[in-house]
């Protein structure tokens, strides 16, 4: 509201032309009045009185409407007459009234619900989404928005939040009972036996490949005063017994060591759930693990990997992410376009959201109108409003001149008829 656009200037020229036309018509009826009075005094006949009466009333109507139109924008002839220059003097009050009008008539709960219900957003949105071109456009826009959001977010901030959240969540919840229940179920289902099979099989293979190292290790632990051949025989014996034990354990599902391991795991699962000391030790171990820098770095680096994966998927039009989003949108659009139940849900969601916004932020919305109007310069605002509606207001002056003339002629005629 501080400058005039080319369109505004064009409208101002139109207002000036209409002012000239209305003023010219006033001058015309004034000239007619003078000539009619002169003709009447010169004995021209009764018609002159009718013309003079019509012209006189036309002048009165033109002047009255000129005063009314002028009083909207400025003081008539510079005279500070009360209730004139209404727009510049009442600009702020007009802004408040406009804000209240908008709030009461456009931002009320009933009006919003009625208007949105009449639009039928659910069915229209569904029909629009059901078109593949529109779905492609929405998918591309969502991908762009996702990339933009991930670009704006600073990795260090997100990593700090993720690390803090994971650490806080893990630290706040005791993990021993959960681990105990899981271990108990694994043992009951026999799921641990696959791990035992793998371990003993790998141990047996390792012993076969590293027999010399095992025997050397046994011989190296023998006392220095024993003969070397005895150490060698002991090392060979220990290696053979160890290999035999591992091989039997691998080949025999009912091996006593396996049963002992089952009992140990069962007891350990029970202790994790019910033994106070065991649970406390697990919690201390958990705290030590979470406090290590390597673990924190691992948690923080997870965001970098996730972010890179999401950005790559969003940029690739043929990625699984975008294809799934597109398929979901197409399916949703087709269902919204045909199923009245879904349409009703969408309509209610939109209505509830709109009602929440207008009821919660009505004051902020109307204050935007009020504050904006209050910030406008009074003189410039007056000129701009006059440029937009002044041309039509000048027609009031013209109509006032014509209607006044006709009314004056009618009054004069009736008066003469009654006098006659």
Automatic annotation (TrEMBL):
Name of protein: DUF445 domain-containing protein
Pfam families for the chain: DUF445 (PF04286)
Regions crossing the membrane: 20-36, 48-73
Organism from which the protein derives: Streptomyces spongiae
Keyword Transcription carried by entry: no
Residues forming coiled coils: none
GO cellular component, one term: plasma membrane
Keyword entries, A-Z: Membrane, Transmembrane, Transmembrane helix
InterPro entries: DUF445
């Amino acid at each position: 509201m501080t400058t005039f656009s080319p369109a505004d200037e064009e409208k101002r020229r139109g207002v000036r032309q209409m002012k000239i036309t209305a003023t010219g018509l006033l001058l015309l009826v004034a000239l007619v009045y003078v000539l009619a009075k002169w003709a009447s005094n010169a004995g021209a006949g009764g018609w002159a009185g009718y013309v003079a009466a019509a012209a006189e009333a036309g002048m009165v109507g033109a002047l009255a409407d000129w005063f009314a139109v002028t009083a909207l924008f400025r003081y008539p002839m510079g005279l500070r007459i009360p209730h004139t220059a209404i727009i510049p003097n009442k600009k702020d009050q007009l802004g408040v009234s406009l804000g209240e009008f908008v709030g009461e008539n456009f931002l009320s709960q009933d009006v919003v619900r009625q208007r949105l219900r009449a639009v039928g957003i659910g069915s229209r949105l569904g029909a629009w989404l059901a078109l593949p071109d529109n779905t492609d456009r929405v998918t591309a826009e969502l991908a762009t928005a996702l990339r933009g959001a991930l670009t704006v977010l600073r990795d260090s901030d997100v990593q700090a939040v993720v690390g803090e959240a994971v650490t806080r969540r893990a630290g706040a919840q005791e993990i021993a009972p959960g681990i105990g229940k899981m271990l108990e179920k694994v043992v009951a289902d026999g799921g641990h036996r696959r791990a035992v099979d793998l371990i003993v099989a790998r141990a047996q293979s390792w012993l076969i490949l590293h027999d010399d190292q095992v025997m050397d290790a046994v011989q190296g632990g023998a006392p220095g005063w024993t003969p070397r051949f005895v150490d060698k025989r002991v090392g060979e014996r220990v290696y053979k017994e160890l290999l035999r034990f591992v091989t039997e354990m691998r080949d025999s599902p009912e091996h006593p060591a396996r049963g002992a391991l089952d009992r140990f795991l069962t007891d350990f699962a029970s202790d994790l759930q019910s033994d106070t000391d065991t649970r406390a030790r697990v919690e201390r171990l958990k705290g030590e693990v979470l406090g290590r820098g390597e673990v924190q770095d691992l948690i923080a680096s997870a965001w970098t990997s996730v972010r890179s994966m999401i950005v790559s998927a969003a940029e690739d039009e043929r990625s699984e992410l975008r294809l799934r989003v597109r398929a979901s949108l197409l399916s949703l659009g087709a269902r919204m376009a045909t199923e009245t139940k879904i349409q009703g849900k969408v309509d209610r969601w939109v209505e509830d959201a709109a009602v929440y916004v207008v009821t919660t932020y009505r004051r902020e919305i109307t204050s935007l109108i009020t504050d904006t109007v209050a910030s406008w310069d009074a003189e410039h605002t007056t000129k701009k409003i006059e440029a937009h509606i002044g041309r039509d207001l000048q027609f009031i002056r013209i109509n006032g001149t014509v209607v006044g003339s006709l009314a004056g002629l009618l009054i004069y005629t009736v008066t003469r008829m009654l006098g006659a």
